[in-house]
Structure formats: structure tokens, C-alpha cells
Design goal:
Keywords: ATP-binding, Cell membrane, Membrane, Nucleotide-binding, Transmembrane, Transmembrane helix
Helix content: 25-40%
Bound molecules: adenosine-5'-triphosphate
Subcellular location: Cell membrane
Structural class: alpha/beta
GO molecular function: ABC-type oligopeptide transporter activity; ATP binding; ATP hydrolysis activity
GO cellular component, one term: plasma membrane
Distance between the termini: 43 Å
Membrane topology: Multi-pass membrane protein
Oligomer: single chain
Order of helices and strands: HHEEEHEEHEHHHHEHEHEEHH
Number of strands: 10
């Protein structure tokens, strides 16, 4: 039994990586959740009614290490209070814990210490379904399935109607290019179907996330270069997506950090600086040196 338990643990860690790379593994993870080390609450609490601004999020003295690495704290003494409607940009060197933060918010893992509250409710007392329904996630790289465009978006909320899918696509600035595909929403995508550009894939991901109308949006900004036109359209879609939601974005672009209400600078699993772009540059600390390296000009993608 111990062996089985630990291999399931290892599997769930592999799945953690899959989520990171693909985002779309979410549904699969939900299926696996029954066997995962993260337990859905047996008598789940409900979230309060959704507010017009988005969700409030409070992390209180969170500490976390991955099960396979008990000696490495990926987050430590992590406390952060985010108001409904705020946009928080998260920056930090590789390995600082940015992705780990998202994994804990989605409850792919539970922290060993501290609490995470969504609209005042400990996320551990929510069902996994309720929690993950409240969170829209736009990963760096989007998996496009061998299915038509309609179903590729519907994957964000499997029960959604065609009209709901189209409404989400419109908000995500995806409707127009989908309409122009040979068979519109029925066009087959993926390996043996229509190959989408990077910007088109991102808009599919945004539409998927919006289908849930989530009060909390987690964005992992793409590091790959888009042409200027796609860049502009994707940015526009993201801005529309952020209205009425609380947003956490792992930021790789200057335009994003400049727009954020607050920038959180992570290093070695905890927050070392917070402020606006201008205040942090003036401070001349870690952010200033990261910004000098990462962000070239307004419209250019970062070099990583
Ligand atoms: P990057 O910018 O490179 O994506 P990050 O800031 O997102 O980095 P994390 O991926 O959160 O950093 O990693 C934080 C720490 O946790 C690192 O020490 C990393 O090696 C470790 N880590 C990340 N994922 C796992 C995993 N699945 N199992 C074990 N350790 C992991």
C-alpha cells in the first residue's frame, strides 16, 4: 500500500509538471483527484456570492515543499493579501516559486503550513470542483486537442452551450479568426487539422478560461515571441478578460508590469519587494536588475 501511495504521489507531481506545461491537464487532474494526496473537503463549504470586482485572496504565512524534496522549501513565509479586482504581476528569477504559487492556488498540492483563503473561505474547505471552477487559468503554452474549435474551447467548461462558447470566444478575440476557418467552429484543429498560430492558441486558452466566468484569473504570460499584430490582439483580449476579476499574472512583458496594480518580486520562495514598476526601479533592488535584463522595450517580448 505504501508503494502504491508513493507512486500515486509521484504521479501527481508529474501531473503538476504537465499542468505547468499544458494547463489543460486540469480536467484530468480532477479525475485523478480522488487518488491524489489533496483531498476534496468531505462536507464542503460554499463560496459567498460572486462580487462584481472579483475574488479576494489571502495567503497567510504559507510554507510548502514538494513531497519529493522535503529539504527544499519552494515557498516560505509567504503572506499576501489581494483585493477584489486587483491585478498583481509576479516576477522573480527562475525557481523563485512563481509556478508553485499557482499550483497551490489550484490545490494541486496543499501547503505544509499556513492558509489560503478565497473570499474569506479556506480553500481546503471547498470542494475541488468549486475551487477550480472559481479559477480561470491561461498557461504559457496551450494544448490544442484533436477536436473542432467549438469543443476545444468548451473544454474550459464541459457543460457549456454553443452560444456560451461563442460568447467566450468573442470576449477572447478568437471569434473572428475561428469564423474565417474553412468550417468555422466545426473546423478540426490539432495535429491533423488546422494548425493555429501562437497568438491564436493563446486566444483559445483565454476563451477556455472565460467560459467559467471565474472571479480569479491566473495568467502565465507567454515568453515566446508573437508578431506585433498578434501581440496587440492577445493583449487586448487579456485586458478584456481581466475586467471584473482579480488577476495574478506571471509577467514577462514590460507592458504587463507597468499596468499591474502591484508587482510582487519573488526570490527563494518569498516576497522580497513589492511596489509599482516605477517605485521598484527607483528602489534599485532585485526588481530593477531583473527589469534591466528582462524587459527591453514596451512592445517587445522578453528574452529568457
Ligand atoms: P520559472 O520561472 O523557471 O518557471 P518559478 O519561479 O516558476 O520558475 P517554480 O517552478 O515554482 O519556480 O519552482 C520553485 C522551486 O520548486 C524550485 O526550486 C524548483 O526546482 C522546485 N520545483 C518546482 N516544481 C517541482 C516539482 N514538481 N517537484 C519538485 N520540485 C519542484
Amino acid at each position: 500500500a505504501a508503494l502504491v501511495a508513493s507512486s500515486i504521489g509521484a504521479l501527481s507531481e508529474v501531473m503538476g509538471d504537465t499542468q505547468r506545461a499544458a494547463g489543460a491537464a486540469e480536467r484530468l487532474l480532477e479525475l485523478l483527484a480522488a487518488k491524489s494526496p489533496v483531498q476534496s473537503a468531505s462536507h464542503p463549504a460554499a463560496l459567498p456570492p460572486r462580487t462584481a470586482q472579483g475574488a479576494a485572496l489571502i495567503l497567510d504565512d504559507v510554507a510548502f515543499h514538494y513531497p519529493s524534496r522535503p529539504d527544499t522549501l519552494s515557498l516560505t513565509h509567504f503572506s499576501l493579501s489581494i483585493n477584489p479586482g486587483e491585478t498583481i504581476a509576479i516576477v522573480g528569477p527562475s525557481g523563485a516559486g512563481k509556478t508553485t504559487l499557482f499550483q497551490l492556488l489550484m490545490r494541486f498540492y496543499d501547503p505544509q503550513q499556513g492558509t489560503i483563503k478565497l473570499d474569506g473561505v479556506d480553500i481546503k474547505s471547498l470542494s475541488l470542483h468549486t475551487l477550480r471552477n472559481a479559477i480561470g487559468i491561461v498557461p504559457q503554452d496551450t494544448v490544442i486537442f484533436s477536436a473542432n474549435a467549438m469543443d476545444n474551447i468548451r473544454y474550459g467548461r464541459v457543460g457549456a452551450s454553443d452560444d456560451e462558447v461563442i460568447a467566450a470566444a468573442k470576449m477572447a478575440a478568437a471569434d473572428e479568426f475561428i469564423q474565417r476557418l474553412p468550417n468555422g467552429y466545426q473546423s478540426f484543429l490539432g495535429e491533423r487539422g488546422v494548425r493555429l498560430s501562437g497568438g491564436q492558441r493563446q486566444r483559445i486558452a483565454i476563451a477556455r478560461a472565460l467560459l467559467k466566468n471565474p472571479p480569479l484569473l491566473l495568467l502565465d504570460e507567454a515568453t515566446s515571441a508573437l508578431d506585433a499584430e498578434s501581440e496587440r490582439v492577445v493583449q487586448g483580449a487579456l485586458e478584456a478578460a481581466m475586467v471584473g476579476r482579480t488577476t495574478l499574472v506571471i509577467a514577462h512583458r514590460l507592458a504587463t508590469v507597468q499596468r499591474a496594480d502591484r508587482i510582487i518580486v519573488l526570490e527563494h520562495g518569498h516576497i522580497v519587494e513589492t511596489g509599482t514598476h516605477a517605485s521598484l526601479v527607483a528602489q534599485g533592488g532585485l526588481y530593477a536588475s531583473l527589469a534591466a535584463l528582462q524587459f527591453n522595450t514596451d512592445s517587445q517580448p522578453s528574452i529568457r
